Amino acid sequence: xxxxxxxxxxxxxxxxxxLFYRQISDENMPLWSFLLVPVLFExxxxxxxxxxxxxxxxxxxxxxxxxxxxxDGGLKLFYGLYPIVLESLLGRMLAFYVFPFxxxxxxxxxxxxxxxxxxxxxxxxxxLVLIKSLxxxxxxxxxxxxxxxxxxxxxxxxxxxxxxxxxxxxxLVLRDHFSWADSFRGQLNNLYIIIFFVVLLYINAVSKERxxxxxxxxxxxxxxxxxxxxxxxxxxxxxxxxxxHDYMNILTSLKLxxxxxxxxxxxxxxNTVLKDSGKPFYSSKFDLAKLSRIENDxxxxxxxxxxxxxxxxxxxxxxxxxxxxxxxxxxxLDFIKILSILCDNAIxxxxxxxxxxxxxxxxxxxxxxxxxxxxSTKAEKLELSPIFxxxxxxxxxxxxxxxxxxxxxxxxxxxSLISTRSAEHLFSQTIQFCK
Length: 435
What we know:
By secondary structure, this protein is α+β, with helices and mostly antiparallel strands. The chain has helices at residues 2-25, 31-47, 49-67, 73-101, 114-134, 138-146, 154-174, 180-260, 263-274, 297-312, 332-350, 403-410, and strands at residues 316-321, 357-364, 368-376, 417-423, 426-434.
């Protein structure tokens, strides 16, 4: 009976740790893992208790390093330590503060009994109450981690969690031999509960503040780009108006020639004026007028800014948008990030080409939006296999930076597909955005 109770407590503890890990790492853990993993730990605790005790502390860290191979080392360690430390803190908070508040004395948290199981059953609900009360937004936290806001701060956080885990375990072992061990363990727990949640509140506040600053910066950038686009459209309108005025004069001259039946004059006007009069409207700068088919101002402004930047660097640009574009199939901010990265790469990649040019196309199908970004390259053909690797750069070779980030964003949208092609001095990226 005692062994069954002990195994049940350990089972619930493992489930709690897995729930904490899933929330902080945003990993979609299947339901069967919550049934199988605790059972495996149970078998380990039953047959090899010392190995199970050690494995409990290191298994989630090792799993985090395996599952998050592309992430920063400090973040992988944080994901592995956070659920272990949090479960320990909340269990002790229930035993030493919440239960006594209701007149229930739980002096020996290692004892086998109903209270120990009840504590483990209440750990996750207590966590949800605390998170809601403290207004901690894990989406903002994870976004802050993903953007590297806390890269330097993660080292002291991880060290503190490791020191806490080692000391708590040491005091637990020593309490049977030294009376002061329990007192020190309680004081350490009291101190670290405060430190832990203060740190959690701090990084949540910093994430929120910096993300809001990013949004404002993005909006300012979009407004600036939209202003440049509007100014460019005004210039194009001025050119068209001037052409209209000149054309009226040409038609008047033709009318006089026709009335006089002066065919030599008519032929001369055609050869010197009319023959090439339409060429200015084939200039790539008039392609920007096609952006009016994009209904979202943010996307329109970003794309216009990139095209104007390319034109200012002497790059020939072309745009193909045949239908109205109003649904981008993914989150707008993610689409803008991908569009910006691909355009920046295209501009950078074609600068060394003999004939620098980029082409951008947006094609709308029933439930799919296709984005194509193509640029000329100096090399006839580029090696494609490493371009999505983290840290890979090929400046001057047509691809630039950021493709790893594109791949990371697209992982959120399993139905979206990206294909890459390089041949005949052209490099192209085609993305199909699907819901």
